[in-house]
User: Which sequence fits this backbone?
């Protein structure tokens, strides 16, 4: 047979033919082989070494080349596989027969190779191996059957799901898993889809090998051959039993309060819907009860979260024990409980009174928590179906509104919802809706109440108090809307407006030529807890070009004690800005000397509840005296609120209270009226003492006129009578003519140093409190003077205005403590 004929036969058979010389260089490739390798002519591969055509990354390539090199010794090698690399770089798997021919025609290229392309077979094998690897590790159950439904493959997940071993399943049919609980309709739908060539998905209730049942969510696909005949069925399934258990557990968790084990709000509403249907079917009524613990926030602060949680658990148990097993008790929120009670369709007042008193009585006995016995009360609101409505959400809202009304009435009581109550509450909600936009509509205004020194009578500060200029109801005081604003959260936006407006007004007064005066702004508990509080304050100050000490922030005792550690951190950040801090309503909550000492506050405000009867109630008088003494020991100023009579003012002044505010001097006034007061230098006027002196006199001694002028302006604004001298001799001359309570002297002065001057003052005028204010640190001289008792306090230049005012105020208190009793006695 000619070579041309042989080549034609090999081409027709789809074989690749290559001839190599002894050095394994290519001499011939048939046409089919060239096309398979991606070449168009022999010259592209002629004389190329065979190893350059082989993909040498595989172990088979190494074996193949070794057989080529040794073919002379073997003569023929059959069925050896090796990959070639095509011109395009694709790997081509070939099964070779290698023959060494010694006839005359083959002398130049004696190595004769005939190969068949087995690439698809290799890819099929690789795909099969890949599928098996994936299927073996897949968490979903995979089963493959042939067209006769004989199981050919089942992965470990499928075996685990059914409980059978592989040898029990392979060759069997899927009917072995049937439990008889899957509806026949499911199987009919499945075969209708599969027989049409479509896939099907659904659920089977199958039986485990141990006899238990499980729910299997499955997807089945028919696999046809090239002619479209179905050869296999492929299924992938997931055991839904755990999912169902998880869903049931999740439903339980989402409807149960984790602390008490009672239903939560979601669970309560679900049970209420069932109870409503049952009540309608059985012809009875349903009472929806909202129960709220009175002043729980204070209880929580006092006990701490762990003991407060124990109280809630015990309270839930008491409520459960107080009702029937068929009734429902739920925890709706932090300190809010809900109950569903079966009642007559038209309940009498006595029916509701009886059940409410039973609940209140169950709560009143003390709760034993560790070493403590805690008493709490509750407010109860009740709405009834069908009398008050049929929607459970609406009934719960009505009951909650009734409970809040009971709480505002003092608590420890119950109220049944009635339409009149709804109208009042509706009006309150309408007012809240309007309040949301009050600032944007420029309806909020600030009034300012003067704060006055009880040492000098001078106006030393103002408190900014918000009012609402309602378009229909006129000027509303804060009592009409602040509590509702706090409950709704509107208090934050109102508080931010007050802060900005107070700073704008301070700027207007400065631009009008008035001296700086501190303005106090109230911070709500919500506002105090805002993360951006310091940023808002610094922006308000910077935007109006104000010094930080001009702003005082009033924080209630309750806000401080809500989270003591967080309150201390916030207070410290505010003090870093330079603003002043005052503690409002001191003595009305749970604070103590230990807590007060931890806060960097400047002013302690004595609540007006202690001031109101301070001249007739020894207990309140004692509390005020203790607060003043305690604050002074901690270096803080005391301010009494709500002074309405001359007697109250003089009593507090005699007991060294520093400042006051109240209707005795002025009600809160609009900004323009405050400007009139300031322009007229209005002040408190005290009755003259036995010595005829009315104002504390402070003598300033410094050889620099500019310093004297600055100190004079600062202390005159505080209401002191200020005298000045530029030398020690001049100061001694003034002391000879005037009664001076405090002298503040520079250290370095011509002819006489400050310590020398104060040593002479100590001898000549021992009642005068002596202070050094100097930028020169002659430590030894000052120390000696202090040790000799010549100097009461040493202060550095440059001075901080607030610090200097505080020290002068403390020096005057020191004078009063030592020498004031006789000279300041008020004639009777």
Assistant:
């Amino acid at each position: 047979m000619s070579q041309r004929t042989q080549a034609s036969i090999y081409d027709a058979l789809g074989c690749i033919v290559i001839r190599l010389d002894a050095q394994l260089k290519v001499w011939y490739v048939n046409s089919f082989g060239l096309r398979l390798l991606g070449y168009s002519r022999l010259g592209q591969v002629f004389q190329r070494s065979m190893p350059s055509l082989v993909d040498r990354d595989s172990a088979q390539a190494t074996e193949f080349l070794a057989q080529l090199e040794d073919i002379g010794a073997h003569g023929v090698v059959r069925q050896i596989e090796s990959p070639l690399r095509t011109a395009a770089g694709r790997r081509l798997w070939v099964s070779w027969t290698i023959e060494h021919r010694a006839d005359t025609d083959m002398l130049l290229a004696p190595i004769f190779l005939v190969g068949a392309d087995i690439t698809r077979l290799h890819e099929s094998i690789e795909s099969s191996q890949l599928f098996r690897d994936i299927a073996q590790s897949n968490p979903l159950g995979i089963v493959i059957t042939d067209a006769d439904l004989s199981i050919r493959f089942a992965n470990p997940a499928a075996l685990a799901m059914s409980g059978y071993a592989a040898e029990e399943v392979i060759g069997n049919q899927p009917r072995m898993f049937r439990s008889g609980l899957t509806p026949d309709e499911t199987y009919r739908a499945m075969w209708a889809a599969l027989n049409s060539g479509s896939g099907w998905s659904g659920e089977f209730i199958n039986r485990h090998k141990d006899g238990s049942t499980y729910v299997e969510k499955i997807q089945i696909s028919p696999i046809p051959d090239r002619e479209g005949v179905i050869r296999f069925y492929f299924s992938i399934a997931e055991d839904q039993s755990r999912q169902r258990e998880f869903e049931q557990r999740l439903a339980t968790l989402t409807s149960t309060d984790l602390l008490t084990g009672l239903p939560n709000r979601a669970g309560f509403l679900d049970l209420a819907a069932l109870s409503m249907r049952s009540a309608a079917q059985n012809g009875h009524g349903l009472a929806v009860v909202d129960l709220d613990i009175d002043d729980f926030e204070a209880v929580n602060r006092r006990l701490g979260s762990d003991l407060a949680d124990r109280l809630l658990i015990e309270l839930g148990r008491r409520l459960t024990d107080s009702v029937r097993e068929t009734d429902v008790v739920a925890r709706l929120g932090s300190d809010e409980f809900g109950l569903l009670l079966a009642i007559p369709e038209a309940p009498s007042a006595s029916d509701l009174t009886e059940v409410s008193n039973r609940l209140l009585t169950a709560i009143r006995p003390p709760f034993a928590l560790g070493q403590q016995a805690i008493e709490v009360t509750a407010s109860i609101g009740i709405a009834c179906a069908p009398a008050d409505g049929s929607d459970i959400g609406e009934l719960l809202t009505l009951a909650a509104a009734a409970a809040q009304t009971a709480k505002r009435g003092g608590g420890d009581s119950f109220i049944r919802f009635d339409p009149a109550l709804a109208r009042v509450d509706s009006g309150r909600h309408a007012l809240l809706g309007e309040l949301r936009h009050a600032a944007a509509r420029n309806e909020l205004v600030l009034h300012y109440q003067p704060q006055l020194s009880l040492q000098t009578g001078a106006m030393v500060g103002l408190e900014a108090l918000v009012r609402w200029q309602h378009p229909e109801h006129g000027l509303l005081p804060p009592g009409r809307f602040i509590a509702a604003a706090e409950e709704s959260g509107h208090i934050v936006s109102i508080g931010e407006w007050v802060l900005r407006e107070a700073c704008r007004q301070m700027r207007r007064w400065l631009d009008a030529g008035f001296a700086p005066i501190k303005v106090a702004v109230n911070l709500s508990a919500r506002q105090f807890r805002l993360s951006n509080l310091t940023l808002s304050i610094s922006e308000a100050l910077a935007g109006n070009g104000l010094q930080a000490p001009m702003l005082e922030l009033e924080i209630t005792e309750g806000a401080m004690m809500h989270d003591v550690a967080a309150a201390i951190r916030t207070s410290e950040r505010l003090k870093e800005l330079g603003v002043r801090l005052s503690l409002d309503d001191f003595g009305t909550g749970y604070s103590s000397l230990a807590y007060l000492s931890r806060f960097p506050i400047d002013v302690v405000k004595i609540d007006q509840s202690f001031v109101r009867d301070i001249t007739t109630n020894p207990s309140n008088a004692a509390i005020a005296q203790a607060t003043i003494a305690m604050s002074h020991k901690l270096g803080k100023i005391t301010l009494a609120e709500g002074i309405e009579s001359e007697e109250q003012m003089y009593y507090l002044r005699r007991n060294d209270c520093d400042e006051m505010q109240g209707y005795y001097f002025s009600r809160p006034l609009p900004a323009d009226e405050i400007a009139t007061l300031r322009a007229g230098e209005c002040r408190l006027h005290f009755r003259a003492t036995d010595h005829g002196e009315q104002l504390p006199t402070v003598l300033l001694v410094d050889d620099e006129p500019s310093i004297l002028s600055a100190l004079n302006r600062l202390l005159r604004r505080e209401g002191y009578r200020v005298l000045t001298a530029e030398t020690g001799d001049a100061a001694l001359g003034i002391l000879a003519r005037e009664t001076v309570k405090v002298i503040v002297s520079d250290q370095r002065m011509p002819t006489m140093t400050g310590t020398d001057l104060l040593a002479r003052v100590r001898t000549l005028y021992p009642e005068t409190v002596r202070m050094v204010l100097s930028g020169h640190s002659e430590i030894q001289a000052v120390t000696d003077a202090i040790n000799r008792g010549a100097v009461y306090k040493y202060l550095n230049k440059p001075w901080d205005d607030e610090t200097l005012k505080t020290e002068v105020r403390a020096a005057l208190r020191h004078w009063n403590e030592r020498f004031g009793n006789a000279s300041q006695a008020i004639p009777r």
The mean pLDDT is 84. Residues 39 and 87 are 7 Å apart (CA to CA). The two ends are 152 Å apart (CA to CA).
